[in-house]
Amino acid sequence: MVLWSKQGVSVRKLEAGDADHLVRWLSDPRVLEYYEGRDRPHDMAMVQEHFYRDDQIEACIIQLDDRDIGYIQYYPVDPEEREVYGYGEGDGRIFGMDQFIGEPDCWNRGIGTRLIQGMVSYLTNTLQADKIVMDPQTWNARALRVYEKCGFRKIKLLEKREWHEGEYRDCWLIEYSAANGEEKRDES
């Protein structure tokens, strides 16, 4: 089931047969350098555990012109994570989001920007998100440039937040606020 499509980029729900894509992508050291770490190649058992067992996460596949090229997930931020991030109940509907493009030949082509813009539009217009948050590692300058171009802003440094290649790495809490964004008007 396709959730949205815009400028050749679309997002559809994860299906059982997509596990093979995830194993291939998450055993490629070029992808793992940015997602999970090169010391954590995934086999089928790990993919099943991490991508098919959490009912709170909406797991999806990214497509470019009907070619499966990556993974994206979104989820309502739970109370514990809201507390870590510094959000209260009065901050509205907050969704978290994580993604990677698993086909390196699709990197540096503007696809990530279209993906994030489309996902922000979907979450704010269809699911009525007030805020969208992510926590990319601080060293991932390419991803941070894309997110900032799409209206996210750095909110808080999360020290030693994520285990990556043998050490805990710092991450930025970044936020897109629907109240400040323009995606509410962009229904295309």
Automatic annotation (TrEMBL):
Keywords: Antibiotic resistance. Residues 9-175 form the N-acetyltransferase domain. Pfam families: Acetyltransf_8 (PF13523). This is N-acetyltransferase.
